[in-house]
UniProtKB/TrEMBL annotation:
Domain of life: Bacteria
Signal peptide segment: 1-24
Entries under CDD domains matching the protein: M28_like
Tagged with keyword Ubl conjugation: no
InterPro entries according to UniProt: M28_fam (IPR045175), Peptidase_M28 (IPR007484)
Alphabetic keyword roster: Aminopeptidase, Hydrolase, Protease, Signal
Protein known as: Aminopeptidase
GO BP annotations listed: proteolysis
Keyword field contains Flavoprotein: no
Domain annotation Peptidase M28: ranges: 93-290
Amino acid sequence: MIASRRSLSLFAAVFLALASPAFAGPGDRALDDVRILSADDMQGRGVATPGSEKSRAYILSRFAEIGLAPVGDRFEHGFSFTKRDGSTVQGVNLIARIKGSKPGKVMVVTAHYDHLGVRNGEIYNGADDNASGVAGLLAVAEAFKAKRPKHDVLFAVVDAEESGLRGARAFMAAPPVPRESIALNINFDMLSKNTKNELFVAGASPFPVLRPILERVAATAPVALKLGHDTDADGPQNNWTTQSDHYAFGEKGVPWVYFGVEDHPEYHRPSDDFATIPQDFFKRSVTTVVQASRALDASLDDVAKSTGR
């Protein structure tokens, strides 16, 4: 992420991503998504910057490639917020949908695409935070496009998480579907870096109906999927309930599941670069969140009933 590091042209990257025959599974393509989104020419994807616009163009190209449909007549949903200095910032969420075989309840999959941008001449590329989560979301979208989900699934790639969950809160302030139809949020934020082969999933403690579903996924997951980080039992600093976009759903009474890794030395540092991602772990992490998303979709009616949705 240092400004002098290798810069990857967006157009060349898209060509390589589409042309390569090496994508044997969801993790292979997800790696390329992370590489492109965290390249220097995305400029750290700071909200309301040219790098943010460029990253949206790439994500929209992936929506088109997968064959996702918008909700209504557009993918881009703008919003604004006021910073502490009184200035107004324009953000943009990207929202797509795959219709399920059964009408009714909706599952929303989220990942934020913004990061810290350029600071003091250094690019904070945010490979793990959160190009990895966006790549995981796109992998889930590809899986559900290949095999239709039971329920409608919205894919919300949200902006301005680093500014206080602004994009997720804008989504919930004016959701593109009736709020009461949203039965569950699945949020991906930091999926790619852990030296202990561990991916955590939070949400089972506040929503006990999720525990047996997630435990079944963990039993066969290709990573060590651990349930936790959703109570104050180990100290408030280890409770992730408020730490990412799923909290905007929780504030409105929507159950959530959050997949992420614990903090690492590259967190919010210029060194959070594609070169520091353990690729095998990330591919297995992506496979895990795809499996979990399928399991949660299959049990969504039970989740909705148990949580009063």
